[in-house]
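Hi R.,

As promised on Friday, here is the backbone we talked about, encoded as structure tokens. Could you run it through your design pipeline when you get a chance and send me back a sequence?
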């Protein structure tokens, strides 16, 4: 906004500085002076053209950099998306390994309990074997005693002597049965001894084998757990690397976005500068046209002064307030009109040829137009305030005497429909120090 305002001010300076100053000097200057002014304006026009071309190149280069920046952002965003996907997969893999490790820990705990149970069985079995060994040792001693007894009596023949030494048949039967019983008991003792010994040995072998099997399984699971822990560490290391890559990419993306903002702001600055140069070019072109037009007038009229020598009434109607009234603070005259009071439209016209220096809406003047004139070599600025509608002319527009510029109204600081008309020589100021009585110039 500030740059546009500067552009308008510069344009006004060009037109009034070159155009209107030319008008003042025209009354006493020759066509050669006008040619010199045109040449100077053309030099400024060439400079502005070069500046415009330079700004265009800068803007195109900036746009190319912005496009390149956006391409880099796309690449970085793609890399970030890929890293984010890898991170998700890695985190899932870590979670999976943690679940497997938890399962192996559960299996190891189960196996430890089984091993504890087997160890308890082995301990009990060892106790049973110890007791059995004691029984076996006792049986072996008993058998040894019997064998020694048999051997000392001549071996198995003593059994015959026992039988043959019977006194009767019934005694024979009794002694034979006793010998058979003793022999059968010895046999049973030997068989039981061998059977129990084999059972214990088989059971001990079975338990030892089961223990070995469980311990082998435990070793495998522990190896699996170690492998899982190792893979988990590798995945965690990968996750750490991916996190670092992600941080770097996000940092790079932040830098690219910052650079893009700077480039976009610079591009906007260049666009504003282009607008300023465009307005300057328009002002210079207008000044050139006005100078050429003045040159033609000189060729036709010689060195006559510009202007008709007088102002025209800016609107029809009657004076409702004079210059200097209200304790000397009224800087112009007020013109009323019955049609305007009744709501009708009364045209407001330019009092003389000139250039619109401002056309806008003011809090005090309402819809207002300022026009600069040069009459008989003297510069004036007229003010047309409280227009009903926005001005019909624009800044820097060239207007002719009697050309409609608005409609009588009551906008701004006004108590009813009228035209507030001011004349300042040579220009309007905020303090209105150059205000003059308009009636001095009106026919």
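Update: got your reply. Pasting your designed sequence below so it's all in one thread:
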């Amino acid at each position: 906004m500030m740059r546009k305002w500067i552009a308008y001010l510069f344009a006004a300076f060009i037109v009034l500085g070159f155009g209107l100053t030319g008008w003042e000097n025209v009354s006493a200057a020759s066509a050669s002076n006008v040619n010199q002014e045109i040449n100077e304006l053309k030099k400024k026009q060439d400079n502005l053209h070069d500046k415009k071309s330079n700004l265009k190149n800068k803007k195109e280069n900036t746009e190319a950099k912005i496009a390149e920046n956006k391409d880099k952002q796309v690449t970085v965003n793609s890399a970030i998306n890929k890293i984010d996907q890898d991170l998700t997969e890695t985190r899932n893999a870590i979670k999976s390994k943690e679940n497997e490790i938890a399962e192996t820990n559960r299996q190891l705990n189960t196996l430890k309990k089984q091993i504890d149970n087997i160890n308890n069985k082995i301990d009990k079995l060892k106790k049973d074997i110890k007791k059995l060994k004691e029984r076996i040792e006792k049986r072996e001693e008993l058998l040894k005693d019997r064998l020694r007894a048999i051997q000392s009596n001549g071996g198995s023949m003593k059994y015959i002597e026992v039988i043959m030494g019977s006194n009767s048949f019934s005694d024979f039967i009794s002694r034979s049965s006793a010998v058979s019983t003793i022999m059968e008991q010895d046999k049973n003792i030997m068989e039981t001894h061998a059977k129990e010994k084999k059972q214990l040995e088989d059971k001990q072998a079975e338990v030892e084998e089961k223990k070995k099997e469980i311990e082998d399984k435990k070793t495998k699971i522990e190896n699996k757990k170690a492998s899982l822990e190792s893979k988990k560490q590798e995945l965690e290391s990968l996750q750490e690397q991916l996190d670092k890559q992600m941080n770097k990419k996000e940092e790079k993306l932040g830098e690219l976005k910052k650079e893009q903002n700077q480039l976009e702001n610079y591009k906007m600055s260049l666009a504003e500068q282009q607008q300023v140069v465009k307005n300057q070019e328009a002002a210079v072109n207008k000044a050139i046209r006005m100078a050429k037009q003045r040159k033609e007038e000189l060729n036709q009229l010689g060195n006559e002064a510009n202007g008709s020598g007088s102002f025209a009434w800016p609107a029809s109607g009657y004076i409702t307030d004079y210059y200097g009234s209200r304790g000397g603070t009224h800087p112009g005259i007020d013109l009323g009109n019955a049609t305007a009071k009744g709501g009708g439209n009364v045209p407001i016209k330019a009092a003389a040829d000139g250039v619109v220096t401002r056309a806008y809406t003011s809090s005090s003047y309402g819809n207002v137009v300022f026009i600069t004139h040069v009459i008989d070599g003297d510069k004036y600025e007229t003010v047309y305030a409280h227009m009903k509608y926005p001005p019909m002319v624009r800044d820097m527009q060239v207007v002719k005497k009697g050309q409609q510029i608005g409609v009588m109204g009551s906008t701004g600081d006004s108590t009813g429909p009228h035209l507030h008309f001011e004349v300042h020589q040579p220009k309007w100021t905020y303090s209105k120090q150059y205000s003059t009585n308009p009636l001095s110039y009106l026919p």
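One thing I noticed while checking it: Residues 1-30, 300-309 have pLDDT under 50 and may be disordered.

Thanks again,
M.
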